[in-house]
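Build the 3D complex.
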Amino acid sequence: MSEPRFPDDLDTIRAVADAVAVCNRCGNCMAVCPVYAETRAEPGVARGRVQLAAGILKGTLPADEEVAAALATCTTCMACEDACPSGVRVVDIVNAARAQIVESRGLPWAKRLLFEGVKRPGVLRAAADAAARLQGAAFKPAADRDLRRLRFPYGLAARRAYPPLAARPFAHPGARRKTGSRPRVLLFPGCMVTYVYPGIGDASVRVLEREGIDVVAPPAAACCGVPLEAHGDLQGAKDLARLQLDQLEGLEFDALVAACPTCTSSFVHRYSRLLAEEPQYAARAQALAARSYDITSYLVDVLHVGPPAGSLHATVTYHDPCHLARGLGVTRQPRELLTAISGVRLAEMREPSRCCGGAGSFSLTHQELSIAIGARKAADIAQTGAEVVATSCPGCRMQLADVLAQAGDDRPVAHVVELLAAAG
Amino acid sequence: MSAGADSARADDVSNDLIRALEGALQKKQILTRTSELLCYAYDATAGEAGRAPDVVVLPASTDEVAGVVRIARDAGVPVYPRGAGTSLSGGAIPARGGIVLSTAAMDAVLELDVANQCAVVQPGVVIQHLNDLAAEHGLMYPPDPGSVAVATMGGSIAECAGGLRGLKYGVTKHYVTGLEVVLADGQVVRLGGKSTKNVTGYDLVGLFVGSEGTLGVITEATVRLVPAPEARATMSAAFARSGDASRTVAAIVAGNVVPATLEYIDATTLRLVEEYLHAGLPVEAAALLLIEVDGPPEAVAREAELVERVCREHGGEVERAADDEARERLWAARRAAYPALARQSRGTIVEDATVPRSRVPEMLAAIEDIAARYDLTIATVGHAGDGNLHPTVLVDPGDKDLMDRAHAAVAEVFRAALDMGGTLSGEHGIGSAKAPYLSWALGDGGMDLTRRIKAAFDPQDILNPGKFTA
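Done.
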C-alpha cells in the first residue's frame, strides 16, 4: 500500500486519536485475546480498550483509577494486532492512554519509588543484592524445585512460586578496546537475566564464544525501560532510553544481542520511536536498531551456526514469546537451533505463540488472570508429552516454570541458549 | 420538571435496578462502571451511534437470564441481548439505555450427538468452537459468517447469519431445529428439538431465528450438523469484462452444478487486495471468481471440470489450485478483501442487498452506476452464487458530507435490489441501520403484521427496542 497514514510517533494525542479511528470494531481481536478468553467481557479486549483509550485521550472519560485498572489488564501480547484487519496498533494506543493517565494523576507512590530506583543502575543493583540476601526470610523453598513460595502467604500470592533472586547476578567484563579482527557482540543482559537467571547470560556468552565471538557487556546493568512505559511512566522510559544510548555511545561492537526479546525490542523498535523528537538520540537509536538482534536470530541469521558438538536426547516443545514472535517476527530461528541439536526431537504444542500470561509485572499485579492464562499454556505443554520446555525469554521462562509447578508438572524449562550451551 | 431533577430520578431508577439485579446475580456478573458500560455501546456497524447502557449483565444460566428479564419487566427497562457484538446492522447496540444482557459467559457445548448428527449448545458458544468439535467426528456446522472465529451461536441464530457456503448449504435458519427461549415476561419455553421433521403447530423455532433479539432471549439451541465433504476442488477465474464474470455465475448454476462457494471479487477490491497481500493476483482483470466444489471425489472431479469449461466459455482465465497450499493462497485473497478495504479507509459500510442470482449482472452494473453518481468508492465482493453481494462503501465516520452521500447511495442500492425482486438483507439483518427501509420491502401489511407479532410477544416493548420493530 502507499504512504503510511499515521506518524510513527504516538506521543501526541492527535496521532493516537488517528490510530484509534482506524478501529472499526469488527471484534476479530476477541478470537485471539488471552485476557478476553478468561473474562469474556468487552473491557478486557482490544476493541473495548481502544474505546477506553479514545475516551481518555478525547477527555470524555475521566483518566481515573477505574480506567487505569481496565487498561492494566492488557498483557501487551500483540495477538490482537496480528489478527486486526485494520492494522490498529493496540499496544501503542494502550500505552499512550496509560501515559495520559499518569500525566494527569501522577504515578502511585509505590511505583514512583520503584521506578526511581530502576532508573539508577547503582540503586537497582544494591536493592537486588540486599533482596537476594534477605529473601530467605520471606520465601520458603517449594518442594523439589528451584522455585520459592512466599513464606507469609496472603491471597493469591500464596499460589505463585517464584525463582529466588540469583545469589550472584550475571556479570561479564565490559567493553575494553577492541583488538584483533574477531567480531564483537555487546551482550545486553537486561534485568531478568542479571538478577534472576544469570545462567541464561552465562549460556549466551558460552555459545557466542564457541563461535569465536568476542563478547562484552554494557558498562552498567540498567533496565531497558519497558516496564516503566507499560505503567505509563513515559518520562521514566525516555530517561532510561537516553541512559542506555549514552552508556553505549562510543563503545566498539559489531552487534548488540540480547536473550530477552522485550529488551531487544527496545533497541530494535522502541528507542527510536520514544526519542523521535530528539534528533540526535533518534539518529543514534536508529543506527543501533540496525545492528540489534535477538540471540537466536543472531546465531542463525548472522552467524549461520552449525549444530553443537554434543547431543541432548530429549523431546522438546517450544513456546514462542510474544515479543519475539510478534514483536520481532522471530519464530523459525529458535526452532532451527533446537532441531540442529543431535538427539532433540521438537514436539510442537497447540498455539505455541499464545501468551503465557507472564507479561512482566502483570504476573504480580494480576495474579488470578496470569495464573488462568498460564494454566492453558501448561495444559498445551502437557499434551505434547515433551520432556523439556524451551523458550527464548527469561520472563516467559519464569512464568512457565511457575504454572507448570502449579499443575504439579515437573518438566524443566530452559532458554534455547541454555540447551545449546548444555549440548556443546 | 427541571433537567437536574430528571437525571436524579433516572439515577434512582438505575440504582433500584442494580440493587434488584444484585439479588439475581453475583456482583462480578454485573458491570456498572462508566468505563465498562462504554464498551457495550457499539457493535461492528459503522456510523451507528449507540449510547452506553445503564448496566451490563453476564448471566451464566437460563435461570439467571430469566431472573434478569423478570427484573427488567417489573422495572419496564429495555434488555438488549448480545453475543459477541459483531452484527453489521446495529442489532446489538443499546438504543436508549437499559440492560445489555451478554450471553458470552454461557459458552458450553452441552451435547454433540453423533448418532443424530446434531449439537446442543449454549448461546455464548463461538461458532468456530462448535465446528472444531464437530470436525473431530467428521461433521460440520455449515453457516460460516466472516466473523465465525468470534461470533456466537446465540447471536448468529438471532441474526440468521449466512456466509460463504450459503449457495450449497443454506444459512443458519436451515440448521436450527430446537430452541430454549426466555420470553419477555421471564417465562422459559422450549421449542422444537432434535427431530429434523417437525410440524407441531406454528414454526415457532423459525420465528425466533432472525428475530434479532426482539422476541425473546435464546438460552439454548439444537442445531443440525452435516457430514464434512470428503473432497473439494478450488479454482479462480479472471475475467476481462465484469459482465462476463457475472454471467458465468448464472451459467454455472444453470448447468446444475451447485458449488459450495462461488465468490465474486470486483476490480477495485482485487487491486486493493493485491496491494495489501502481494499475492500475484491478476490486477488487470475486471473481476475474479473464486469457486469451490465439494463432495465425493468422483463428483468433485466431474463438477470441477464443468465449472472450468463454463468459465472458459465465458472468457475466463482459469487456474485450479493443485494442492492445499495453492487453495489456501486463493482463500487468503478472499479473506483479505475486508482487511484490504478496512485499511484503505476510516470506516466501511458493508451492505448485503441480495437479488435472485440471474439478476446479479444487472445488480453489479447498478452498483457501479450508483458509486459513480455519488462520487464514492464502492468495492463489491460477494457470494455471487446466491445473489448475495457485499457492496462496501469506503467512508469516514467523521466526514459528514461523505457519510450523507454514502447513506443516500446505500438507499439507492436497496431500491435497486428490491426492484429486481431481491431483498434489503441477505444475511446481516435489519437492526437499526436498515430499519428506515423495511417498509419498502414489507409494505404496509407486512409492517403491520411485524408490529402485531412484536406486540404479542413483548407488549411492553422491552426486548431490543428501537430496532426494526419500532
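The first helix of chain A runs from residue 13 to 21.
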